[in-house]
Structure formats: structure tokens, C-alpha cells
Amino acid sequence: MAKSWFLGVPELRRALGVILVLALGLFLLLPLLTMVVWAFADVWRYPHLLPSSYSLRWWSWVFHNGNMTKAIFWSLTTAPVVTLLSAVICLPAAYSFSRLNFPGRRFFFISLLAANAFPKFGLYISIATLFFRLNLINTFWGVVFIQMINTLVVMTWIPAAGFDSVPRELEEAGRDSGAGPFRVFWRITLPIAMPALIVGGILAFLAAFDEAQGTFIVGAPRITTMPVLMYTLVTNYPEPASAVFSILLAVPSLVLLLIARRFLLAGYLAAGFKGR
Amino acid sequence: MVRESSGHARAVEAVKPALTSYKPARWREPALGLLLASPPVVVVLLLIALPAVQAALFSLGQVPQDNAAYSTGMHLVSSPTLTLAVYRDLLSSPFFRADIKLTAVVTVWSVVLTLLIGYVLSLYVRFASGRLPTAVRSLYLLPMFVPVVIASYALITFYVDRGQLQALLHAAGLGYKPVIYRATGIIIGQVWANIPFAVLMLGSGLDGIPQELVEAAQDVGASPWRILWRIVVPLNIVPALIVLTFTFIGVVGSFTIPFLLGPNAPQMLGVAMNAYFTSYQQPQAAAAMAVMAFLACAVAGGLYVWGTSRTGRTV
Question: Is residue B212 within 8 angstroms of chain A, CB to CB?
């Protein structure tokens, strides 16, 4: 009862809630559903609400197209490597920001925001020039580095909040019972902070997986990932081709949604963005 | 990898004197802290700060001769001293002014609508009971996991002229005013994509408001609206500020959504930047746009820093 203060009349409140949820659901889901139907459509003309005939030929077209399989391969190799590398670079920093006191701590923490605040296209040109000198253009590692820029904030801020949430008393109790600092870290700190690390990792993976502009500038024509190819598809191919490819491209993300849902709702993302 | 390890090495050099010339116990923590924190900062320095400074100097008339992508551009302004000529030329162009106006309009509407819809949803999830709020909790996360290029494509198939929405409205005997390839299309896309972050932030803030406070206000007869305005909104101001900042930064710098859902002219800054660089071969104008967009984002970032430092770590 105490929870239902925000509208006096219960029936009204419930009706409003249902309408709200329905509207939101339609707003979020209908475009995706339309796309799914397109993936199986053969002929679908306005104003028909459903296709007049169905076909699977675009599915076989996608799987037999060399560019497609290449893009799937590059997407599924770059994004995990970016996530791992980002973890290696950012997680020690996250621990440091959370637990150690050093000069410029707050400044360095916020300076990571620059990775999000400078328009990427203005940077990719300068970065591409730098990569050209380092022979990173058109290479796997060049693409990995460019995709990693987008992962720094989530991979540092959210795990840092995770380390914040580990009670110091637990660590002290561990030390009191004779465990060394590394043992305390592995057996107490890390397991408690792990959900935040998982959220950071998943968001980093999504950011890398989603990146198209920088990947195109650094990787094309040899390394084209799925989002890069998607731009060509949307503009040059009939609807079902893009729709089929979209579904394939969305699958890894939706699997991650199922894994991450619980952790995301636990508030780690919000804690990470609340500053320090 | 080369750059990161050299960054490490530099950081080690920087802290070495500190480690040797002072009492180790006193200096161990700051030294270790700096060392561990440096890798992502070094990456930002090399891949963001340096290129950004280079782009800014270029936009101010300093043309680097060793950078072919810059020095072969058209309409180059090259000056021995810093000059604002590139900015003056850009801002005097009516086409670019229309781009700025579109960017401003889309950004303001997207931020306001995202904040508003996010607030309503998070209030519902926080204070309503039953099974529906649980369903909403799963639903609003969805856009976060759909790659933005797919989301844009899906929105096109749904909202485009003679698309699915028009077909649905037609079946219901209603008319339809097309939104795709217009400013409205971009705003719909931005709101769609930004809802998860807004609800996660605002919802987490609402979870932190003590139930006793709300109940106490109810007991003294405060109306729901009064509780909302006098207790909930003021206590939840920092998360709202964070949503505002990050939605703003995301929308101003966005490319995919305005590129696929927006009009050919005028264009949002992110799309115009791309066009000036690749189609018009005017990298200097593109760099100037990047700097302008960054300055706008820096103001928003300052708001974030101000908001989160004012309340410290208590929120």
C-alpha cells in the first residue's frame, strides 16, 4: 500500500500504468518486430499489414555471401579482443581509483570522459594519420585500438564502483586471519566486485561490437565488421537482406542482455557514473 | 601495444625518484595508484587528447605539412599566427547555420524527452506494485543491447513513408504525417536509443530515496504531486543531471542515427563533419566543427563535474 502513493485512486493508477507500459512496449518493440517480419518476407507492399508471400531466400543469400561471413568473422574476433585488452588496461586503474589515494586522482578519473566528449569523427582523421605512421592501418590491431576508445569509460568507472562496494571490514577480517594481500584480493575483493566487472565488460563489448565509423576508417577495405557492412546493406540492398543481417547482428547482443539483465538492474551502471 | 608499454615506462620513470628519495611507506600508495591508473589515461592522451589538440590547431590555421589528410584539403586557411578565419567562414555560411540550428533543436528535444520519459518510467517502476513493473524493467533495457545501426534500420522500416506505422494507421482509418528523413525522425531515434541509460540512472536514484520519507510526507497529508516536486525531484537531482549530460554528449556527437534517419539538408554536426571531410574535401572545416561540438560537450561535462562534486560521494 505504501508503495502506491503517486496516484490516489488505485484503479486509475493501474489503468495509467497499463497504458504507459503498453505505449512504451509498442514504441520499443514494434520497429524491431517489423524488421523481423521483413527478414522472412518475399513480397510486402503497402498498405498490407503482413507480407503477401514469405521466403527464406535472403537467409541463404546472406550465408552464401563472402562479404557477410567475413564481416561476421571480423566482428566476432575484434570485439572480444577489445574487451579483454580493455580489461587489462582499465581494471587495475579501476581498483586504483577506488582504493588508492594519489595526486590528481579525481582529475584523471574525469579525464577519461574526454573519450566520450570529443566527436569521434574529428578524431578518427588524426588517429588514422598516426596509425598510418605506425603501420596500423588496415590491420587487426588498428581496428582493436580504435574500438577500444569507446570502452574506456565503462570499463573503468563501473568496475571502480564495484570495488567501492566491497566492505573494507571484510578485507581487514581476511588480513587479520593471516591471509596475504593477494589472497585477500582474489578470495574477497574480486568475487564481491565481480558483478560490476561483468557489467563493465558487457558494456565494453557492446561498444566495440557497435563501432562502425572508426572501424571503417582504419579497417576498410580488408577488415569490415558487421555494423560497417550494415551501412552498405541499408543503402544498397532490398529490405529483407538488411533485416536478415540485422537479426544476425543482434543475436550476440541479445544473448548478453539475458546474461547481464540481473547485474544491470542491480545498479552497478548508475553507481559507476555517479562520480567520485 | 607499443604505446601502452612506453606509457607504463614513462609512468615508472615519473614515480621512481619518489620511491627512492622519500620514505617508501609514505610514497608507496600514491606511486602505485598513479602507476595503476595511468594505462587508460595514457590511451586517452595518445588517442584523444593529442589528436584533439592537433585538430584544434589545424582549425585555427596551423596546417601540418607532414599530414597529407590535412594539407591536401580544399579552401585551406593557413596562417603563421592563430586565426579564427575558418570559424568565421563557417558561421557566415547559411547552410552551416542551418546545420547548427538542427543540431541544437534535435539535442534539446532529445534530452528533454529522454529525461521526461525516463522519469515517468522510473517512477512507475519504483512506486507501482504488481507484475507489470517487472516486465517494464526488462523491456526498457532492450535498446541498450540493439546495435544502433540496426535500431535505426528498424525505425526506418516502421516509420518510413508507406511503412508499417502508416499501414497500421491506414487500417484504423487514420492519416499519417511522415517523420523519417526529418528532424522528428532523428529525435525518435535518439529517444529510443537513450531510454535505457536514463531509466537505469534515474531508477537507481529513486531506489535511494528512503521509503520512510515518502510515508512521513503522506502521513502529514501531502499530495502525490507535492511529494514528487518537493521530495522526489530534489533528492534525485544528481542522477537527472547525469542523464542530461550524457544524453547531451551522445546526441551532439552522434552520427549513425542522424545519418540514417535524418534529412539530407540541413544535417546534424556529426553528419556534416563527415560530409565536409569526405565529400567536400574540407578537413579544416570538419576539424572546426569537431572543436565546436567538443566545446558544447565540455560545458555539459562541466555541469556533470559540478553536480557530482557538490554532493560528493553521499549520493
Answer: no
